[in-house]
Amino acid sequence: MLEIKNLHAKVGDKEILKGVNLTIRDGETHALMGTNGAGKSTLSNVIVGNPSYEVTEGSITFNGKDLLTMNTEERAHAGIFMSFQAPIEIPGVSMTNFMRAAVNARREAQGKEPLKSTDFLKIMREKRKLVEIDQKLMNRSVNEGFSGGERKRNEIFQMAMLEPTFCILDETDSGLDVDALRIVAEGFNKLRTAETSAIVITHYQRLLDYIRPDVVHVLIDGKIVKTGTAALAQQIEEQGFDWIKEELA
Fold first, then answer.
1. pTM of the prediction?
2. 100-to-11, 133, 166 alpha-carbon distances in Å
C-alpha cells in the first residue's frame, strides 16, 4: 500500500528526515516510536502533504501512485487520513456541516453522487456510536468547547465517516485518561480491515496495549534504526531508548 524509499525532508534550512525507508502492506498497522525531535510528526506531515515540509530526496508510492506529485486534497481523496496530535477549533462551522462537506467532497472525487441528508444523518448516527460521541457535540462548531478526550474521539469519528484506506494516528494518546484512551483505541480497532493500513505514532506502550501493531519501528535522528514485533515496544517501555542509541554508537 505505502512504500517509502530513502526519504529526506526539511523544514526551512533544517533537515529532519535523513533517509527513511518503510513498506506498509494492506491490512498492516505499524507503530512508530522515538525520542522527541526524531522526525515522527515530520514523517506524518510529509505523507499527508503539509506544504511546510520540503522533500529533498527519495520517493513515496501509495497504491502504485507517486504520492509526491499529489497535493494535500488529492491525497485525502485517495484515501489518506491523519488524526492530529492537537486538533484545532473551526469556529462558525458545525460538526454536522463540516462532515457533510468532507464526505461529499470525497464522494465527488470518486465520481459518486452526494449523500442525501437523511442518508448522511443515518450514517453519522452509526459512526458516532463507535467512539461514544454525544449528539450535542455535532451541533457545535468543530472542536469548539470540546475536552481533550472529545477532540481525540472526534478525530476517530471523522476517520469513520471518511472511510480512508490509510490512517495516521499522530500521538492520539497524548493527554487522554485511561477511559478516553480505551474508547478511542476501540473505535480505531473497529475500523480496521484487511484492506486498510495505519501508522500509529506514540511514545508509550499503553496505546499499543489496545492497538496491537503488526510491526514496531524506532525512529532516531531522522532514520528508522530498529524494527521488530510488539515486544520491541514493551522493551522500550521498560528500558527507554538509550539501549538502542548504545547499539548504534
1. 0.90
2. 34, 17, 21
